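Provenance

Sequences were taken from public entries as deposited. Structures were produced by running a predictor on each sequence independently, with no templates supplied. The record for Epoxide hydrolase N-terminal domain-containing protein from Aspergillus chevalieri is shown for reference.
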Amino acid sequence: MADIQPFQIDIPKEVDRLNRKLKDTRLPGRPIVADAGSHYGPPYEWAQRLYDTWINDFDWFSVQSDINKYPQYTTSIENLNIYFLHTRAERPNAIPLLLIHGWPGSFWEFSRVWGPLSRPSDDKDIAFHVIVPSLPGFCWSDGPHRSGWTLQDTARVFDQLMKKLGYDQYMVQCGDWGHFVGRELASKYTDSCKLLHSNFAPSPLPDGVEYTGREKATLERVNDWLENHIGYAVCMRTRPHTIGLVLHDNPLGILMWVGEKFIEASNPSNQNDRSWTHAILTTASLYYFSNCIMSSMLTYYENVQHDKFAEFVVQPENRIKVPFGYTSFIWDTEPSSRRAVGRTGELVFYKERDDAGHFAALEHPSGLVEDLRELAGGHWRAS
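Predicted structure for Epoxide hydrolase N-terminal domain-containing protein:
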């Protein structure tokens, strides 16, 4: 269509500017107190290591080249310019699959799965037409032009995007804030959204039940997150302009603000992994180059608060009305269980994985791909 325009990432001047700003940054040279460890935020040594790696051993142009191997586009919907990656499978029976990220994720969060999903190596594996948009306000998608823009508004725009691409019926995979976009599609747009998978689905257990061992472990994880790790969300849901302006042209600030979540919401074994460092630096670079750190914060200001998530998902109007699957990753911020998630919709697939967390597509791409194919193989029913 004429209003769908090809897009390629090409920002060489900004790379030079980023490197200059990083080299001109003065770190304090020590933690806030000598025995800080990780009690006051990410360890100082971690921050120093990522800063040094960003300057000396991070190749943005290889990241850019890898992304540009896949077709990317922009299009205008409801006066918003929406960026998306779209890689079609070669098979005629491929399933349209909409992948929806959250914060501090990005479209790139799915970079380790969009190839395997659209270009399976085994002829017997299900193939997908993969569509990965940036949420409004993230990575080359316009931020909302008005206050009060909710994730339910984003769901409406994404449904229009899929139909503009010729996909009248499709499957959704989502996590973090993307879960609430996916939940809206699977509760209100059931003529088009036919199947849903989520790796994030905060849900309440029934009252008065005895918890299983896993449910006790997940409750401990949730309580710790809400008690000790929610300061970033309070800032963004109350003063996004203030913290947004602080971070807008501050690469080290962005690195700390988004990088903290990448180590606190993932498998702890990731912390010293070179590929995980690369993922953090790539995400920080994307936020910096696309000038989206401030506008990305609107997801927190305009939507349901964390302590109301479980209440929101059991409201009748938010119940998932199409078949859906959930994979519970134990290191997630708010992992849930089968009987809790089952209260929020037509749950047909459930799996537990103990080797990854909040960033499932990056942490355990093969597992996520496997779960999507298993769910689709049993429950995709296009009419």
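Residues 63-210+304-379 form a domain with the Rossmann fold fold (CATH 3.40.50.1820).
The chain is about 40% helix and 15% strand.
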